[in-house]
Structures are given as C-alpha cells and as structure tokens.
Amino acid sequence: MTRVLDGLRVVELAGIGPSPHAAMLLADLGADVIRIERPGGVNQLVPVEQDAGLRNRRSVHADLKNPDDLQRVLRLVDNADVLIEGYRPGAAERLGIGPEVCRARNPRLVYARITGWGQDGPLASYAGHDINYLALTGALNAIGREGERPLAPLNLVADLGGGSMLAITGILGALYARERSGQGDVVDVAMVDGVSTLMTMYWTLTENGLWSADRGTNIVDSGAPFYDTYECADGRYIAIGAVEPAFYAQLLTGLGLDPSDLPDQYDRSAWPMMRTRFAEIFRTHDRDRWVDHFAPLDACLTPVLTLEEVATHPHIAARGTVVESFGQRQPAASPRFANAASATYSAPRAPGADTAAVLRDWGVVESAH
Asked: Where are the transmembrane segments (predicted)?
C-alpha cells in the first residue's frame, strides 16, 4: 500500500512556526519534502536532530544569497509540486526565489506563502507573533476569565490552527485545481485570515446577539459552571463540558445533586452559586477517583492530563495517538486513512546531510565550472 501523498515533491524553505509544521503534515502523509537549510540555520528551541517537528524529510544546505546555491535550489523547484516559505513579504523576491521566478520556470508549482499579516495590507511588513494575530481578530479578547486580562492559548490558534492547517487546505485545494487547469497557484496564507476563519462561529453568535464581548460570561468561555475546569483534592484538575441537558443531568447524578432542588441549567443568575457548589464537591476527592466514579456516566468529564500522563491514558494508548520513534515520544501522524499505508517516522536530518542524495534523486545536474 502507498500513502496518500506518495510521489508529491515539496521544497520547504526552512523557517519556524507554521511553515515547518505544514511541511511535517505533508511529509507524514508520504510527500517527499526537502528542507532547504540556510547557513547557521534558523532559531531552534532544540537541536535540529532532536526536533520531532522536522521528522520525515531530507535536508539540503543552501545559501540563497550565493548564486550557485540559488541556482541549485531553483533546479529543485523545477521538479517540485509545492514550495512552502514563511518569510516576510518581499524577502523571497529579494533572494531571487519569489513566486514569479519559480512559476515562470515551473508553471505547475503551488507556491505557498505563510505570514502573520498576509502579503498586503498596512501591517504586511510589521513583525508579529501568534498573540498579535489573535489580538487583531477578536480571538484573544474572547479568551480568559471574567474580569481578568485576555489569556494567550499557547501558539496553537494562529501559528498552527490559522497558519499551518490553513496552508495545508490551500495547498491541497491548489493541487486539486491543478488537475483541471494544469496550472499551479500562489497561496497567500495569512494567520490573521486563518484565525478569522476559525472565529466564524463567534461572529455568527455575535451578529445574532448570542455572544457577549465580556470574556468569561458565555457558555463555552468558562462563563457557565458546566463548561469549566475544577480542582480536585490532590491539586489536579478535571474538565467538564456538560452543555446539553442530557449530559448535565448525568453530571448532577455523578455529583449526588438532585435537579429538583436546583435552578435551571441555563439560569445565568444562578451560575456563580452553582460554580461554587461544584467546586466544593470536586475538592472532596482526588482527580482519578472522580474519573473512575464518572466512568459509567455520559457527563462529558475528563481528567486534565499533563504531557507526561498523555501517552499512558487508555484511550490515547489504544489509538496509538502518541508514538515513540528515534528516542522521543511524539504525536502520531494524523489523519488516518483506511486504504493507505501507515505512517513511518524517520529522524530529523542534520542540516545539509542529504544534499548529494536529493540532487541525484530529483535529477538535478550540477553545472560544470
């Protein structure tokens, strides 16, 4: 069996954040991804060889400011289906590897550009990080406790949700369109646009008067006592998401509460009192005892796990959601396909370790001097 993207050739211009994550997702599905490493590399939190996010691709060293190296990379582009870059707008053009140059050589190329603000607009050249893109889209204002400052939700939402995931959508969409037109495309992936897309539900609720701009007062932003986390006797936490009445009834059963003695689930005036009541009860037992107690009930209750605990959870273990390869635990490839071969996990390669092999495999003939 083959994997779904076997045969797809991708050039990744080394960067940080969403671009290597997008390249990893394609590589996990079978694409032949070549990472072009610049002299000195990019700012890595850990050495390249220990970065699971750089798995499943080969590495070519190239200084794009060197004319010979640039021509070598452009010859790789000639044979590629996709190019991914995460530079600031205009940087690739200044290096001589922008979309006009690349697509003039290879009209079938899908050229994906991932930036925070997009390729145009007043902020296009302005520096930023995940938290900034969240701030400008209204997402950051919506996250946090009532009466407290907005809370940054790691860099999952903009860099990865609005960045790499939307890049994959754009790349696959452009590849599908290429099957009909024979032409590639330039995909402008702006994290600010991607986060706005993720906020569709909250725009809809706002436009229909069903969402308050006061954070921490709505149902799914910790405003409701039945959609929140609670501390247990051992200092660990459980999460509950009993939004629907049927699940809420199961929650009350598990907590030993009689619904006839309580206000309606959606009586907002009673939410502070119910939160206090829930908190008092959950503090009477350890987290895992609560998990065992609620196991027979459909109350949308789960333990809040640390990364150290995740891999051994029965459900995660049964699905193989975390794998161990090249000496590291890491997320398994996702999604899964019924009619494709399972993913494999090759260790990240040292910068430039595969230069000669890649040039050979991709049919790049070095110019004679």
From this structure: none
